[in-house]
Amino acid sequence: MTVFRNPLSKVPYTDDAAKIVRGLIYKVCERASKWGALAMTDPETKKPTFSFKATTKAVDQASADISARVFRGIEWSVLRTGAVHKFYINGTLTDAGA
Q: What is the C-alpha end-to-end distance of the chain, expressed in Å?
């Protein structure tokens, strides 16, 4: 099953890359929320639980990472439903050919 599809053939190695991946992660979390696995809004406080932060700009990436097309410094979190009330998860996005 395809949860999301990137409309671009390639993700540019710019700060826009973080914006693109944020949108994709958000869509996946929204879908999981519809399934009941995640809560995009805290049931007690009614505040959004999804957060996303790009901690490193494209120009500040290590030269070895730029050469290898690796973009570091993406962090996100969302509230999981069920017996466990919170998970803080770091995700990794890899190339299908890697």
A: 21
- Report pLDDT digits (tens) over 27-72: 999 998 998 889 999 989 999 999 999 999 999 999 999 999 999 9
Sort 86 into a burial class: Cβ within 10 Å, 0-12 / 13-18 / 19+: exposed
Residue 58 DSSP label: G
Q: Name residue, tokens 């996100």.
A: 76
Quick: pLDDT tens for 17-35. 999 899 989 999 999 899 8
**Phi-psi bin for 73: left (phi > 0), alpha (psi -120 to 50), beta?**
left
